[in-house]
Write a structure and sequence with these properties.
Layout (H helix, E strand, L loop, with lengths): L5 H4 L11 H15 L30
Length: about 60
Amino acid sequence: MKKMPLRDITGKCNEGECRNRVHEGDEERQHEISTMDMEYSTPAENSPSWTFKRNDPPGWLGGRV
């Protein structure tokens, strides 16, 4: 690289040197979600019965805790 970007020297960005990839990624994902033709206004009707119990201890379905 022949010229060090100013953002690396001074911490300030010139036009076109810096991009907010986190914000851009959030916008891309939100746009992708918005273009899907799905209704999310109500929960699924056929939820498994174990999803309604919140007081069960961890690992009650088996496995390691």
